[in-house]
């Protein structure tokens, strides 16, 4: 795990110091584009990568405190999400005048951060050197930029109280010229990567031509490890998230089908604000739940009340305790735009996989080769080359009667360009104990071509199937 020592971050702070509204009443509609996170042309290789990073992200979301416990030195480490964000970004304006920066929409984290200054370093980032050449924010080109102070309440969004108790008092007479009252540098750790920098107060413009919202806390990241060539817009439930800071009572997104050619002319949409969700036709609603472990990192996730899972209409036998968030924080289902492939604990995954296998038994062959190469299972190959595969329906049934009946392209993917096999795009921690955190993480691959509405006023999520594809 790549991190920078405290002295280097302080050096960045010295360099930075030397160069230095409200929610929309109507919906603002923005393009939501796929972010290419790999240069690999081989589809099987991309499936392998997505399976691995989805599992790493799931492990982090299930135990975000693990990264905090692992270090006792250096800057405070704020637990957030993994580096595999599902690959969907929107573009926002940061600063005055606005600098348009792409940000990955991530409902599993809170902090909004952007690649910052010409000194921005991105090591081991997908896309190689191109990631480091992506759009960056230049603070000294903005007339509205301010460093957030150490005693500013917003500083506590990224640092624990015991860390902030060490804030230095800087005399106004300048008798201590090396004293900085700024919020200490942050290092945010993800499932397999990190980012770090300084917390700013800045103006944020949602859509080009709109009025800007002042005094939004934005991370100015000076280094990153294993991050895509974009910043992150945290859409979680914590105070630092974009919905919380903008006072949004509703937001929605529609994720275009995830292909591996990353066609530049195709995108979905994100909507921030707007009319009540009840005025939108065709939505099925289910309540949002609060994790009973209040004050823990789990309280920042969007929990859904999943009642059952069916395969071809038949209920899969799953332990009830796995579907309910318990006081210790474990169990339950969250929805996360930043996880690619859905994660299920082994006690849930195995019954689901067996139910699918029983439905195709005798019709298709298991492809051990595809399973070994991709890390996904089960994988099936047609009995004869060129045959179509008819696969069982997978459905999630939620409280309130809402059912997400997935099209086959949302839970099976072709492994290889020849179509020799298809694999279930669900990951699990095989052989590991259930542990803490959510039992199921509903990822972006399963949300393709669903219009997802987060109704924060009524504490519920609505969804409907539709084509999300739009052209520029």
Kindly estimate the percentage of residues that lie in beta strands according to DSSP.
25-35%
> How does the helix and strand content classify structurally?
alpha+beta
CATH topology of the largest domain: Cathepsin D, subunit A, domain 1
Q: For the residues shown, what is the average pLDDT?
A: 82
Second CATH tier, the architecture of the largest domain: Beta Barrel
Compute the number of helices: 8
What is the strand tally?
30
* Total domain count: 2
Sheet with most strands: 22 strands, mixed
CATH class of the largest domain: Mainly Beta
Poorly predicted tracts of residues:
1-8, 67-85
What radius of gyration results from the CA coordinates?
22 Å
CATH homologous superfamily placement of the largest domain: Acid Proteases
How far apart the termini lie comes to 38 Å
Q: Tell me roughly what share of residues is in helical segments.
A: 10-25%
Tell me about this structure.
The chain has 472 residues and is of the alpha+beta class. The chain folds into two domains: 267 residues, Beta Barrel (Cathepsin D, subunit A, domain 1), CATH 2.40.70; 195 residues, Beta Barrel (Cathepsin D, subunit A, domain 1). 16% of the residues lie in helices and 30% in strands. It has eight helices and 30 strands. The strands form three sheets. The protein has a 22-stranded mixed beta sheet that branches. It has a four-stranded antiparallel beta sheet with strand order 17-16-22-23, with helices on one face. It has a four-stranded antiparallel beta sheet with strand order 20-21-25-24, covered by helices on one side. Strand 28 and strand 29 form a beta hairpin.
